[in-house]
Every structure is written in C-alpha cells, then in structure tokens.
Amino acid sequence: MSTLRILVPVKRVIDYAVKPRVNKAQTAVEIAGVKHSMNPFDELSVEESVRLREKHTNKTVEDILAISIGPPKAADTLRTAMAMGCDRSIHVEVPEKDEMLEPLQVAKVLKEVVEKEGRNLVILGKQSIDDDSSQTGQMLAGLLGWGQACGASEVVLDGEYLKVTKEVDGGTEVVRGKLPMVVTTDLRLNEPRYASLPNIMKAKKKKLEKKKLEDFEFRAVNRLKNLKVSEPPPRQGGGKVEDVDGLISKLKELGAL
Known about the structure:
Layout: E1 4-9, E2 12-14, E3 36-38, H1 40-55, E4 61-70, H2 74-84, E5 88-93, H3 103-117, E6 121-125, H4 136-144, E7 147-158, E8 161-168, E9 171-178, E10 181-185, H5 197-203, E11 208-212, H6 244-253
Parallel strand pairs: 1-4, 1-6, 4-5, 5-11, 6-10, 7-10
Antiparallel strand pairs: 2-3, 7-8, 8-9
GO molecular function, one term: electron transfer activity
Protein name: Probable electron transfer flavoprotein subunit beta
InterPro entries: ET-Flavoprotein_bsu_CS, ETF_a/b_N, ETF_b, ETF_beta_N, Rossmann-like_a/b/a_fold
C-alpha cells in the first residue's frame, strides 16, 4: 500500500452564512469588518485527509500538509485546519490590499509546493464560495501531469490506486486512478468535525511556515480585471390564480405559453 503525503489547500473566505455586500466603488465585494471562515469545500478536504489516516492505522498517511495563499489572517484558517488534524502548514502571505490571485496563479504556486514537499496526493475543494471558478484542481493536475477526479462524494484507497465516486446527472460515476492524483471534493463527501478546544491548543504548537510569493519561481500576474460588480435586481413577488384557466391565462400574459 502506498504511503500518502497529502497536500490540502485551504482558503479564507467570507462566511457562508453572511450575505455579501458590494463595495461603494462597485469593484468587488466588501470584506472589511465581515466575518470570514474556511471555505466549506476545503473543510471537506481536511476532514477526508484526516479520515484516510484514521481508516488506515498502519501509517499509510505519512503527513498532511495544509497550505493557504492569502492575507495575514489566513493564518487563523490554517490553525483551524491543524486543529482538525493537519500536521503542519504553509502560509503564503499576500498583502490584503492586493487582488485575489486567479486559479492559474494559485495552481502554479501549489505545483511548486507539491514538487518541493514531495506530495503524491492533493485533496482540495472543487470550488471556493467567493469566486466559484472551480478551476484550480483541474489546472493543478494539468500542470503536474497527474490524473484527477473532480467532485468526489466518496474516496477509497486501494493499494497504489484511489477509487473515487462522484455524482453525475442521473446517478453516480466511479473512477479509479493510480497515485499521484488530484482529488476535488463535493458537499456529500463527509461531515467535517468541529475543532475541539484541546486540539485548538495543540494546533498552536504545530509548525506554521511563512512564505511570500517572491519565494516562488513564477510571478503572479492576473490576466482578468473586474470591470463592475453589482447586486442582482430584487425578485418580484409571486401571485395567486384561482384555477387552471387562470394559470394558463397568466402564463400567456407573461409570454411563457
């Protein structure tokens, strides 16, 4: 059975329960003074990495390394990942005033970390809930020349192979790939654990390595520019009809029939 050296990228995003607001300049979403937390899909990735280690007691999982590319407060997100079970972490610090890196730039950083740290499995969320690009995992697999399984709802280690179940239209699809691999996680994969107080205290003693973008060979240059960000128009209220004839009449009036 292969020894796994897992990399788990995590991202600090606006908390999923917060309703985002567009800033006054209409250039981005307002982030000042807004509650942030770990991207929900990344929580699944951390949990699945820890579960793989728990399922295989013969030291199959050698090391779980978390990484985040973001502002100084992203260190809190990494501490949470370590409290959930990651062994150590790397924080690639990006000044808060800088624009968010695009998926390709993130994938290039992750590629260098994979090669330097000798990783053979990357488990990451299929998307982040702020930009919803759903591209980083696929781009990373392409840069590395590795196999990939996207939108996993079940992950099973089988010797040198991973068997991944994913939901597709009308049912499920099962793929099997040889390590090394990139796996992206979907919502039905697992239920992330809460970080207990003792584990939060232990996480403070785990290694958190600080890096900057200048420490990497590539140079981050975004290729896209946000021209305008605006909120969707308010939804109009519904109406009631008395019978089927009234429904048909209303649909014709709206041009739906």
